Amino acid sequence: MLPSIAGNTLVIAPEVDLVYAVKLTAALLSRGIHPLTFSTTPSIFIVCIAVAVASLSAVLFRSTQKRHTRVEVRRAHSLWCARSECSVLGNAHGNDRWAPNGRPGHYNDADMLEIGNGALTVAEQRSHFALWCVMKSPLIIGADARALSGDSLKILKNTRLIAVNQDALGVQGTLRVAMSVDQMSSQAQSTRSALHRKTDVVAAVVPATPGTPAVSDTMLPWMARCTFGENVTEPQQWQLTANGRGLTDMSKQVCLTRSATSHLVDVAPCIGSVRSHSSTLQHWDFGRALITSSQVRDPLNATSCLAFNGTRLHMEPCRTETSDDPTPSDCATSRCRFSSLTDQLWYLNSLKQFSAAYTNFGGGVPPGAQPRATPENTPMCLSAVPSPAPVNPPSPPASINVSAPLQVWAGPLSGGDVVVLLLNTGSSNNTITAHWSDIGIAAGVVARAMDLWTGADLGLWQSDRIAADVASHDTAAFRLTPMTPHAH
Asked: Which of 141, 188, 212, 256 could crosslink 247 through cysteines, CB 3.0-4.6 Å?
């Protein structure tokens, strides 16, 4: 286990090699990186001494171990491209879809930083870091801190972009415009207006009376989007009964219950004594679900497993593992890139939530698994009340072609400022223009601009736009401060 961060305090689990932790700290400090300096925004941090990166622990102070090798073998091609497997642009565009879910305490992780690993040019490293900062993604160094070049160090130590990443407002910056060279050159107002992002609202939980699910096409009886940390609600908290064979809510009023007449599973009033659970329909074989993801079986029929297919809790025939591992006897103990059992795996976690693995695994539908009916990476938990089905992550408007090379990313900052990123993913140098209407500044407003790479004050910008010449695969980054009429 690697170290973890709680607030702005470093917590090292007992399993961590303390010699490794000390050496890692020394390596970071020797390069001018201060891993123990955090903002008061707990979930956003720069350079985690925890370095939740298996590659670093393998490369730095330990002999290469088998379980780490998969992290290392990703260098056969450039990580820059827009395909999902190419990390930087693919991850940025994927993370952008989840922007409506990002907020203080809930930040979308675009994955570790590839800066300093040798697969990206300096320009690509600059763009990579700036994108992650604008998106408010956690910033986790994924390279050997001792071997970082001067260029990579300069990028990682940019305090102006780090300040954007850790801005107290906590709103994720998003892709606002993507254009071809011809479109950007023409600056057609009709084209730009068509590229504005739509606003999506995530549905809220609708309470209902336990035992009476309001089943509809948009409702998931007894399953809800998991809440986390201090916000875990009582309807999502569960405990084992005294005999260890039943699962009941904290008030011991309702229990996880199989149907006597169908394959469906519900949350229903506990039958008989909560201690004895006289109804075998409320008895379960939880396997290892108290310590890891595990199948949960009918104790009277070991071939029948609890499953969640994105629509309904139900019982179905237990399946055996199929994954990318040639001999995947158990993906809970051996590392598998995917598991075919995700819709049959459950875990009673430390927050007392009974969570399904079904929607918390990316990469498409593994062989043997059931097609998903809910979004990936949207953890679902057993709930004592039915809840609205989670919405799919919003896709960019059809008019935004994420493969278009000239892109404008932007987001609001505290104090009314706006961060703007002009990104050139193309193969030639180009001028990119961000119009006020694209980035959330009112028409006619004059804004003072600061170059986030150099720190230079670029003076006042008017005419409702800001523009810059941007080299291939590079980015220009600005912090705009709208001025009041008497301030300029």
From this structure: 256
Extract the runs of DSSP E, i.e. beta strands, from 214-312. Answer: 219-220, 223-225, 238-240, 247-249, 254-258, 265-269, 297-298, 301-308
CA distances from residue 120 to 27, 110, 130, 151 in whole angstroms, order as listed? 22, 17, 14, 12
Whether pLDDT at 486 is above 50: no
pLDDT for residue 390: 54
Q: What is the pLDDT of residues 296-350, one digit of tens each?
A: 999 999 999 999 877 789 999 998 876 555 554 556 555 555 667 778 889 998 8
CB contact at 8 A, 242 and 275: yes
DSSP state of 330: -
Query: Could you give the C-alpha distances from 332 to 6, 338, 342, 350, in angstroms and in order?
Result: 26, 11, 11, 17
Closest CA to 174 of 80, 99, 88: 99
Q: Is the pLDDT of residue 421 over 90?
A: yes
71: which 2 tokens? 């992290």
Long-range CB contact pairs, 270-278, < 8 A, 24+: 270/246, 274/241, 274/242, 274/246, 274/248, 275/241, 275/242, 275/243, 276/243, 277/241, 277/243, 277/245, 277/246
CA of 388: how far to CAs of 223, 254, 260, in Å?
A: 9, 20, 26
What percent of the chain is predicted at pLDDT more than 90? 40
CB neighbours of residue 199 within 10 Å: 7
**For the chain, what is the radius of gyration of the CA atoms?**
25
